[in-house]
Amino acid sequence: MQLFKHLLETILGSYVKKYLKSHPDAKLIAVVGSVGKTSVKSATATVLSEKFTVRHSRGNLNTTLSAPLEILGVDGPKNAKSPLAWLKVFSAAHASIKNSESPDIIIQECGIDCPGEMAIFMRYIQPDIAIITSVAPEHMEFFKNMDTVAHEELSISQVAKKTIFNLHDIDEKYHNLIVGNRVSYGDESADVFLEIKEDYRHWLYCQFKTLCEETSQDINISVLGKHNIRSITGAAAAGLACGMNIEEVAAALTKIRPVSGRMNILRGIRGCTLLDDTYNASPIAMENSLKTLYSISANHKIAVLGDMNELGETSESEHKKIGEICDPKQLELLITVGKMAKKHLAPIAEKNGCKVVSFDTALEAGEFLKNSDIKDTTILFKGSQGGIYLEDAVKELLLDPSDAEKLVRQSQSWMKQIKAG
User: Fold this and answer.
1) What is the DSSP letter of 345?
2) Strand 377-382 and strand 300-306: pairing?
3) What are the strands, taking DSSP E only, across 345-404?
């Protein structure tokens, strides 16, 4: 099966090279990094769509097999194990190559699970722009240490014409690995930055500036959390790199909305506000989510935190670190979901003085909150997808049941996959 996969990667990569050669005017933007890829991709698509025709990868189709298909604008096979199904895909790829029409810009998210996968992407893409969102603990059962993660993620700069990188979520000791033409984004020390002037409950008032221009723009942005501001700033840097002026970029930034499962604000029962950050979780993302909850002015606050998967030997220590930042002065209640959170996160949080309740499943946590007497409470939901799926807890607390369509993993294919375990 592994040989079949390698063969498919080679064939699909050759199709992408042919496509890009036959459509030389189409710019390719590759979005890579440990966390934040989908948010940056979505924000970048929103910004660039104001001036260009844009095609961007759907959902989390970012693997070595799905990414080339997204670049080609071709659907994957219904049965990935069927050679006949792949022949139909190859036929569609040929048609895409010969099609004279192409978007101005293609934005592709590239995700890696183990060392060597970025090199597979780099065989067939030399992006006009690479956006690097972060270097943080990910899939540590394969990477083992942060140096390996950094070398893997940052290697894309070796083939990119320009690299836009997050100045603050990539340790300074790794910055020398980012080679060639590069632009940083982040706070006021970066080349492109958004300065938060006022922080409200549901939106941010910011000043958008670049070091290369003397002008600035004041804008209102409908997102929550400083880490999400960085995602938007990466999109702003991409807009400028593609030839948009600061006024055009600023206007586009106001149209950005949160992606499902990424700090999306939903109305809950009994006057509660639900912070749906359920898409996935890593240590840095979990910490950012808690900091965002702490920054909000609210009468009562609860955090529902699930296991963080795929951390390998670092899993125990990383869960304990999250327990250490659980603040009893901020949280009236901490709810954990999953074995690792119960075993390692909960005891540390309790030692800090937090009131903690633990459950095995998201549904149990949701039913507990639904049947409790909480009201006028802001509740954060953050956990990994595999085996946790905290959107099931959010669903129990929605004021309007139809808002379930705004949650992640609600398609029939996802429901089938989750049910199969």
Assistant:
1) I
2) parallel
3) 356-359, 377-382
More confident site: 114 or 31 = 31
The dihedral through the CA atoms of 416, 364, 368, 389 has a sign that is negative
pLDDT band at 227, cuts 50/70/90? confident
Q: How far apart are alpha carbons 278 and 391 in whole angstroms?
A: 6
pLDDT per residue over 298-333, tens digit each? 899 999 999 999 898 899 999 999 999 999 999 999
DSSP character for 341?
I
Architecture of domain 264-420: Alpha-Beta Complex (3.90)
CA distances from 132 to 154, 157, 168 (A): 7, 9, 11
Contacts of 10 (CB under 8 A, 6+ apart): none
Question: Which structure tokens are listed for 412?
Answer: 């029939």
Q: What CATH number belongs to 2-188?
A: 3.40.1190.10
Q: Answer yes or no: is pLDDT of 201 > 70.
A: no
Residues in contact with 114: Cβ distance below 8 Å, sequence separation at least 6, in sequence order: 139, 142, 143
User: How many Cα atoms are found within 13 Å in the side-chain-facing hemisphere of 314?
Assistant: 20
Comma-separated ranges of CATH 3.40.1190.10 domains in the chain? 2-188
